[in-house]
Amino acid sequence: MAGNILIIIKRENINANIILSAKYNYNHLEVEVMLSIKKGMVVLVVLAVLFSMSGTGFAQDVSLEFQQWWGVELPEGELRDIVDGYTEETGIEIELLSNPYADTKDQISAGAATGTMADVVGLDGSWVYDFAVQGSIANLSKLMEADGYDDSQLSDQIRVNGSTYMIPVANFAYPMFVNMDLLKEAGVTELPKTRSEFIEAAEAVTENTDAYGWIIPLSTSTPSGIQNNFMGWLWASGGSMLENGRPNLVGNEKLIKTVEFQKTLFDKELVSPGVYAMTESDMVEEFANGRVAFMIDSLAHLTTLRRGDTDLNMAMMKVPTMDNYNGKSGIGVANWGIGVASNTEYKAESMDFIEYLMSPEVNARIAVAANAFPGNVNAEPEYEGADPLFLDAFEIYKDSYAINEFTGLPTSEQLMRVFAENLQLYLEGDYDSADEMLAVIEDEWEKAFE
Amino acid sequence: MKKIFNSFNKNGHKIEKTPYLYLSPTLILMAVLLVIPIFMVLRYSFFDNVIINNNPVFVGFQNYINVLTDDRFLIAVKNTLFFVSVSVIAHLVIGLYFAMLLNTDYLGEKTKGIFRVIYALPWMFTASVIAILWKMMYNPHGIINYLLQISNLSSANIAWLGSRSYALMAVTLINIWARYPFYMISILAGLQGISGDLYEAAAIDGATPVKRFFYITLPQLKPILISLLTLDFVWTIQQFALIWLTTGGGPISATETLSTYIYKQAFSKYQYSQASASAGIVLLICTILAIFYAKQQKART
């Protein structure tokens, strides 16, 4: 254990050197080690050029590299089969570079730094901002416009400064999970549709059973609870935390109401204890053990919950909306996104390939294989033999719009952390009003957007 | 090696180059893995935001001023002081106590062997295992609350890691539990090295067990204890994994220590210069300690 900090710092250096310094042409780094890395990079670039020549120069037809982590997570051979369909249609060869998520992230970052990114890349929303600002991924708005592509069929688009840089291919939704046994025990007969009804149901559960009504993981080490469990309430009522891509917290009525609503739940002691140090997995554990009636969680955990306790009598529902809200609800999502490298020679072909993946039939096929929801709103995946709860969730998803406002924001995890810390202070009564808390958070957030 | 590697300095003394050739693989490794990274971090700390900035500008001590005036950093220092001092003292007391228990003549070798393994167990677990274990025990529905409740010491389900008032104490306790065996094993080795003659002589002179402890055991163990304390201080100040995996520095900033502060600066805010500056401060503290340690070791030899 000795030297923890030093080791971390060393790692930071090494990563930083390899990945980031190259991005900026080493203007500011003159250490000798850098030179050797630079040489290594040159060799890599030369090799990459040679490879690309062998692929294109000699064989005349176009070949696209598609780097992603999906191939690893999909059933074996599925992605190969899907892209072969494209090759049949167009004659364009697709070379798959499939690696696990973390490796893909490293490789794409390194590619972004050296300008050797694959032509088409799988993207995670949290990388988009950095890559877009750095100029290593192409502006898809322009490509779609050049192609006359109808973007209204896309469930969502991840934008930076108003232009699209990532298109979600498959979405993993965050509906609300309900423990029906607890509701029955508490005498709640109908699933709550509004926040007032939710408070009543949570009160009934907390009073009449050993369990609690609501749970929200607010750990500051992995603050994703803000995105998945807190903002889910705001989005469900059609709210937004951004305006023109920038923070819009102070004076945001719907957000203030949402913060106050959470405080009500805490003040009435309807929330499972210990949430300030709780992570998403802790929350799932509490739910799986029947200690809480409602939680917002990724559908990806459905299998885990089924495996863990087959007796758990669960249901899916929409996140309740503000009273008297009749508009459409947003549902939180995580996604597999796709983008085009700036350095590719084949922008038009790359866009064409993306359009193929986003076409209703192909997109439906990807969604089914990935146990996800399609990125094309017209896709009609046939989830044969799927878990009935999954199908319920799909109905909820179709009836809502997919949203995740943290995707594409700078230092998004830090934004969530700042929010989580201040929300804890507010819930503890350290702030006089929700707006006062939001003002502090907005100040902090603005710094990231500078 | 042949003579061609050697040359003469101006006084006519031969300068041996051969030894340096033999040393070079180690020296190069040390330079690449240790010296260069440390100096790069120190260099980063004098620039405005490095790595994410194209052309960082030299800003002198500005990063250090920013860090030292950051409330969050001061909280981290305060928490680290508590965490380190309580941990180190408790490690010493518990380690010494268990070591003396295991060194007793009243127990058979087999019994001692079994207890030696049991007491040393926490040292064998990795941080992630320890974190999972204690998170379960600290759970509001966990065993600790259960035991408190059946013994009528508490009536509520206390969220040990999730409460601002208990969290720091709770993680400190985990750290005490995880690290005392190192003391125990080292001190046990030290105890076994103390000559029985000393105790016999003292017993003949009529010294009580308490006096024997203070006038024989402690002075004999002093060199080991000082090494242990120095090492433990440096290790505990750097304790990151346990804190990160249990509370992440929260709730709010209740368990924010220097290590979690630095991590957040670098990998969450991407403020690499500020992180480097904070790391520089920690490095300074640890270096001062290391110098004391080295001096003490030198004085002994």
UniProtKB/TrEMBL annotation, chain A:
Keyword Amino-acid biosynthesis annotated: no
Cited InterPro entries: Bact_solute-bd_prot1, SBP
Assigned keywords, A-Z: Cell membrane, Lipoprotein, Membrane, Palmitate, Signal
Gene3D superfamilies recorded: Periplasmic binding protein-like II
Protein name as catalogued: Carbohydrate ABC transporter substrate-binding protein (CUT1 family)
Species name: Halanaerobium saccharolyticum
Automatic annotation (TrEMBL), chain B:
Domain of life: Bacteria
Spans through the membrane: 20-42, 81-102, 114-138, 158-178, 275-294
Keyword Cell membrane: yes
Subcellular location: Cell membrane
Topological category with respect to the lipid bilayer: Multi-pass membrane protein
A Gene Ontology cellular-component term: plasma membrane
Keyword vocabulary terms for this entry: Cell membrane, Membrane, Transmembrane, Transmembrane helix, Transport
GO terms of biological process kind: transmembrane transport
Residue ranges occupied by any ABC transmembrane type-1 domain in the UniProt entry: 77-293
Pfam families in alphabetical order: BPD_transp_1
SUPFAM superfamilies, A to Z: MetI-like
UniProt family annotation: Belongs to the binding-protein-dependent transport system permease family.
Designated name of the protein: Carbohydrate ABC transporter membrane protein 1 (CUT1 family)
